[in-house]
Structure formats: structure tokens, C-alpha cells
Amino acid sequence: xxxxxxxxxxxxxxxxxxxxxxxxxxxxxxxxxxxxxxxxxxxxxxxxxxxxxxxxxxxxxxxxxxxxxxxxxxxxxxxxxxxxxxxxxxxxxxxxxxxxxxxxxxxxxxxxxxxxxxxxxxxxxxxxxxxxxxxxxxxxxxxxxxxxxxxxxxxxxxxxxxxxxxxxxxxxxxxxxxxxxxxxxxxxxxxxxxxxxxxxxxxxxxxxxxxxxxxxxxxxxxxxxxxxxxxxxxxxxxxxxxxxxxxxxxxxxxxxxxxxxxxxxxxxxxxxxxxxxxxxxxxxxxxxxxxxxxxxxxxxxxxxxxxxxxxxxxxxxxxxxxxxxxxxxxxxxxxxxxxxxxxxxxxxxxxxxxxxxxxxxxxxxxxxxxxxxxxxxxxxxxxxxxxxxxxxxxxxxxxxxxxxxxxxxxxxxxx
Length: 415
Description:
It is built from twelve helices and 14 strands. It is of the alpha/beta class. The protein folds into four domains: 6-99, CATH 2.40.50.140; 126-256, Rossmann fold, CATH 3.40.50.2300; 259-297; 368-408, no CATH class.
């Protein structure tokens, strides 16, 4: 028989175990749990009669959607591996599921990833700041409804609530929730609230069903998801426009606080009063300044000053005119030989010119021509300047101081 070293024995055991237990599914209770700083998880899985060391390396640990805790019942999937230096075997865990809800948890995660990829968790609709009419989709007999109405009455009593009795658990709950969402969406509500109390994952599962998720996503009315207690998270929380940790918290988040608004109104009124008083005081000061300026620069005061100045100028002008007249009167009363001489010289020139014009007029006088034996020739009452231009047959008048002779031109001989 061949003698083997310890390492060789452990190596052969490693090969046999790892080749045989490639994929193992085992269930038990967690004990001695350690979350190493490296990210690896070390713990022991046990039942009433035995224990199995387990390890989940960081790569698989970060994929967990929950935290492993001491005493938790788990179902693990993985492979048996052997740590040769110590000769110890352990379960190298690839996956872990909490016992009792493992399948639902897996379904929940798969649905969540699917709807997230479709964009169902984005594009949230805005909620009304002051809602007037809200639909409550919950059980009409549960304590949840009374809690919500109590909080609402305390916060904001100017809203109308309409309760649509809805199955929130058990058989038919999924259809009831989806149907009431569709109905409420057609009735003109400002908001729809889905509400129920806490419970296990199985109790809340209706709010993870695709039929409900599709109804929430397709609704045009903003929807608030208020399911369970704060640690409870369902898929309707992600697709709804607002997730409230509890039904009562939904009222806190959705409705304004009337006390805060009353205080805000008081503060606003006080601020406006101060602002208005400040404006009035400023305007009053401006009016006083304008009045003072007007009194100092009054139109009537200016008019009075101008009138006084006009009177002063008038008196000055009258005095100036009287002075000038007095000076001229003095000049007129005092004989001036040069003025008289110049006037006589001017009159002598005019007399000489008048005599000359008179002599010229006498020379041109027709009466003087007629006295000297001249005759004035007229045709049609007009004097004839040139006889050579008189046509034959023209009737002429020959006039001198003694008589008028009418004759007809028979012949014209030019000189």
C-alpha cells in the first residue's frame, strides 16, 4: 500500500468532493455570522444534529438583495470546496434565499428589474399642491382609513375624500386594486391614494402583481403608494408618483399643514403691512418735500415777481420817454441857423427843378403847337404819330384852336 502525505490525502479528498458536489442546495439556520472587511461572508449553517461551514465571497455577496443575519433560516446554493492547508471542507455559496419566501423574493427582484428596464419607475407626475378631491383605495372597514382621515382633518380640512372599497389582501385583491385604479382615474380626482396596513411579503404581494403595476403606470391621475409600514417596500412604491412610508404619512406628505399656512399668512400680512407703511411714509415725505418746494417756487409768487418787474420796467420806460421828449422839446424851441440854412437850400433846389419841369411841360403843350399854326391829327380819338403809316380810306380829324376838320385819306406820299 502506498503511503501518502497529509497534503496528498487532502488534495485527493478535495478532488473527490469538488467533483462530486458540484452543485448543492442545502437549508439550515445561520450561526457565527461574520461580515469580513474584505466583503466576504463567513458563517455556519446548522440544524439540530450537524453543522456546515459556509463562505460567500464578495463577488456573490454584493448580489444579495437582503442582509444575512444571525439566526436566519436560509436555503443556500453552491459547491463543496476543500481548504487543503487545514483539511477543512466548506460550502462555497453562490446564492442565498430566506426560507419560506425565497420564491416570492426572487419573483419580486425579477419583476423589479424588468419594470425598471422598461422605464416604469421614471417620469413621475407632479402632485397637486392644494388637492381638493382625493380618492382613497383601501378597505372601508380597516383602521388604516380612520387613521388617514384623522390626520387629514388635523392637517387640511378643505379636501373631499371619496373611499373606493378595495380588497387589499388575498384572492381577488389584485383585480380589485387594478379595477378601482382604472375607475378612479376617470372620475376627475386630483390624486389617488393606495393604502393598507403592514404585513408579510405574502400579505402585500398584490401590490407587486403586474396587473396592478400596469394600472398604476397607465393612470393619468397622480398616485400615492402608502403600503405597509416604513420597512415594507412593494413594486407599487416604485412605479407610483410618490411613495409614503405609511398611510398616515401619505396624508402628511400629500396635504399642506393648515397651521403652517396660517402662520405664513400672518407673517405675510405683517410683512405687507410694514412694506405698505414704509411706502406710505416715503410718499408722505415726498409730498411734504414737493409742497415745500412749491411754496418756495410758487407760480403765483413768480407771477407776482414778474408783475412787479413789469411795473418797474414800465415806470422806467415812461421816465425814459418823458426825458427824451423833454430833450427834443428843448431842441425844437431853440432856433438852429444851420437847420434853417439847409432847409432853404433844399427848397431852392426843388424850386429850380420845378421851374425846369414847368418849362418842359410848356414846350410839350399842344395848345402852344396850335397857336404856332400846327394842327393835331386824330384817328378814332387817338393822335397819329406818323402819317406814312395811315392806311388809305382812314377817316382823320384835323384839329387846331379854331376848328375841327374831318377828312378821308385818298393818297399817301412819303417824304
